[in-house]
């Protein structure tokens, strides 16, 4: 009996993605490597027709921010402004998210921001399970390339997907969880905070936990 050799371990996501770009350049500069690996995924997203959301999109919405980010924010899916501009969190919820990021003593350009689904659900409805299933391989590959130190999930869709949990946000937020060994903190979605500003204080206390984990100084503790 001939035993087949064990299958070679799949190369890590970054290495696989880099096979599709110019290897000498990508290997010479590790930061270009991460950006280039994301560009490969972004091009696949741009051509994706795997679910019904593709039919009504203006364009796909991949990510914004720094491929080398220590902190990744994950929302639900593009809204009207995002669908028009091709960038996540550029509408009213995005303006609030940027205020939160700046209050954390970070620049919006220093973090990485993306969504569970890359095409706008009609009327901003919650993405349906088949749409989440079709799109999330892209999100998981993005996380595999960026490999942040901390993930913040914004709202139920991102939190539920990454934690595989149906528990309510009121139970999940404000506590540390993990996704594949990466510390993950769920908090309220900024769109929810715009509707229910009384919960902003909870998000701020969640973000203080994130700052602590990243070794950032909370405002008021400086000087
Ligand atoms: N809400 C999201 O979840 N993502 C966006 O990009 C914008 C609004």
Explain how this protein is built.
The chain is α/β, with parallel strands linked by helices. 44% of the residues lie in helices and 12% in strands. The protein contains ten helices and six strands. The chain has a six-stranded mixed β-sheet with strand order 1-3-2-4-6-5, sandwiched between helices. A hairpin with a 2-residue loop joins strand 5 (177-179) and strand 6. The longest helix is centred in the middle third of the chain and has 18 residues, at 129-146. The protein binds uracil. Residues 75-79, 82, 88-89, 91, 93-94, 115, 191 line the site of uracil (URA).
Helix/strand layout:
Blueprint lengths: L12 H6 L4 H6 L1 H17 L16 E3 L5 E5 L4 H6 L6 H12 L8 E4 L13 H18 L3 E5 L1 H8 L5 H4 L4 E3 L2 E6 L2 H6 L4 H15 L9
The structure holds uracil.
